[in-house]
Amino acid sequence: MPTLNLFTNIPVDAVTCSDILKDATKAVAKILGKPESYVMILLNSGVPIAFAGTEEPAAYGELISIGGLGAGVNGKLSETIAEILQIKLSIDSSRFYIKFYDSPRPFFGFNGSTF
User: Fold this and answer.
1) What sign does the dihedral 50-98-63-107 (CA atoms) show?
2) Which of 12, 36, 58, 69 is the most buried (most CB within 10 A)?
């Protein structure tokens, strides 16, 4: 059930969006050791974002997971997602924040119930 919400001020075309969704799904699943079938990625493009007082290309992300997060894993996720954004959208890693949430099972719903 890992869910990655990404927001960027860059407009993203459909092909690039699809590439980012695929790459991020594979990366999140691999790093967290969870099946791709449970990973959800959302990409919100063209969102007004000011970072360090400018509207230059930037991004913000939130990753929610039931377990699997920690200092080492979070660092690897941050590095990998930043790399995807750099390659696909030319967003410098110094203009990307990501926040991690370790969610208790009863606080995350799926299929009409909770985990």
Assistant:
1) negative
2) 58
Query: Tens-of-pLDDT digits for all 115 residues of the chain?
Result: 999 999 999 999 999 999 999 999 999 999 999 999 999 999 999 999 999 999 999 999 999 999 999 999 999 999 999 999 999 999 999 999 999 999 999 999 999 999 9
Give the active site residue among 2, 35, 48, 106.
Answer: 2
Q: Residue 89 is which amino acid?
A: L
Alpha carbon distances (Å) from 30 to 3, 11, 25, 27, 59: 14, 28, 8, 5, 22
